[in-house]
């Protein structure tokens, strides 16, 4: 048999996870990402980012299995909090991008009585945008029972707690499946899309939207922001088309989007619309992705420089203070604890506005609600660059007199009541 045209450019490396698109097991190591996680976190404290030598896909070779990720999204979903996550449509910028997506979907599903299921619906922002356009037969599925309950009770839309690979029977046969910012989170990509195909009627469409990894470096606001515990697949237009092809889905349209995750924070995305085809393309029929690896290499270099600059700020902040309060128990904090001087700091408490974190401990230190630190006079270090201004404003609005240290600012911010 002739050697596949996709072979080459691989360095043998021990893998916890073969390529989730082509199944290749020879990959080049690109980066090792480490985290410090809360004590009861179901995922692992790090993984390797690798590039498949066969098809060129870049992904996390993580030792966590699909059951670990299912447990994480069922019990630790940040998407239950409308104020700190995207997907609910509560904020103006989130509502705008969901309305744009709904308008696009209307081109492919003009029948307002069509059965549409949004898998990974979070708090239902996209479903609400479709409902406002007159769609009557909507259904949401999310691993978080809290999200499913919110969609039912607050939006009046049918919704169930369930997993992508084990969809609730109530979903039934559907005319359209929506996977908006879901597939970057899924460990077992091909089984997931096979489960989706099983509920698609003949002629049904699949809409997939994911972050655009080829443009990560152009929108770099926090070091390694896209190498987090949740995003374990890094797609380009080529790799997204390859995924649909190996699952027997024919792309009928694809393109790029620009999202806003918070004021002044654009985020690049790509999408593809597919319909079922008779045959699937196996590894030898895929297009080798030659754009993704150099784009990720540039992103890693830029993130490393940014991480070094942040570490210097942390070092200077720690020289001027004793114990500190760390505001933020999210992705950046978990990286900074593992990779910078913050790991050696004396931390009195972590603070976070999302109730999902309250009551947890990180290295034995409690995570508190903002209201619980009024009598703690330690300086506050904000470990979020995406929401830094919002957090600083909240501290001021609360009347807290703590000294505030901002990683993304040129100087400290001092608040007074």
From TrEMBL:
Membrane-spanning residues: none
Single biological process term from Gene Ontology: methylation
InterPro entries: SAM-dependent_MTases_sf
Statement: the UniProt record of this protein carries the keyword Transferase: yes
Domain of life according to the entry: Bacteria
GO molecular function, one term: methyltransferase activity
UniProt keywords, alphabetically: Methyltransferase, Transferase
Protein name according to UniProt: Methyltransferase domain-containing protein
